[in-house]
Amino acid sequence: MMDLIGKLSGFVGKNLTYIVFLVVIWAYFMPGAFLWAVPHTVLLLGVIMFGMGMTLHAKDFRLILQRPKEVLIGCTAHYTIMPLLAYGLVLAFQMPPEMAVGMILLGSCPSGTASNVMGFLAKADVPLSVSITTCSTLLAPIMMPFIVWGLAGQWVEVSFFAMAMTVMKVILVPLVLGLIVHRIMGEKHVASLSKVLVLVSAFGVLVIVGGVIAINGAKILEMGFFIILMVLIHNLGGFLIGYFVTGKFAYV
């Protein structure tokens, strides 16, 4: 059974991009298959963050203390470059309010495990990437509401406290619970469950994507190319600016 789960986990990990694309098509033409997930989005996000907490190790936190300069530069760059770049795109292209808020939310999100995977593929400093991901995630309950309040407040009323509580429930609490369970179970048992955690997290991501497409498919299709272009510019711009900025600070 575990061999089958291992093979399935490996297949999903290698082909997640294509699977997401298939789910998008499925959800657009058969939205009923994913509408059930919409009311449970918060729970599903919590499950994903719990899985992330289960994969963290004590060394991820030790590195934050051992290399505070690099972690500080990475987190600062993340929470300045990405939201300000999103805000600049919103102003430059005069986006409608709902899209403007969406772009700023995108720019203010903490980095995820996907960034660590990309760092590994690029032969980057993966331990540092994991530490920055951990730190930015722990800072999310404060940074996300603050950034959204500061940059998107002109389009939508933002309650800093209410949003902080929501982010804490969705991100921080499941993450800490995952860390506690990891500590109680021990490294050996968690390692044996790692393939299952990959499948559970992938399932959560896929049904959330499917739910979003199910209820917003027509609107996304209407502005699809523009949205894709904006997200592409935002990500590529963040990569380029981050590369040069962090490169300059590395020698300070």
UniProtKB/TrEMBL annotation:
It is a multi-pass membrane protein. Keywords: Membrane, Transmembrane, Transmembrane helix. Signal peptide: none annotated. Its main location: membrane. InterPro entries: BilAc:Na_symport/Acr3, Bilac:Na_transpt, Na+/solute_symporter_sf. Pfam families: SBF. It is found in: Membrane. The chain crosses the membrane at residues 12-29, 35-58, 70-93, 128-152, 158-181, 193-217, 223-245. This is Bile acid:sodium symporter family protein. It comes from Megasphaera hexanoica. The lineage of its organism: Bacteria, Bacillati, Bacillota, Negativicutes, Veillonellales.
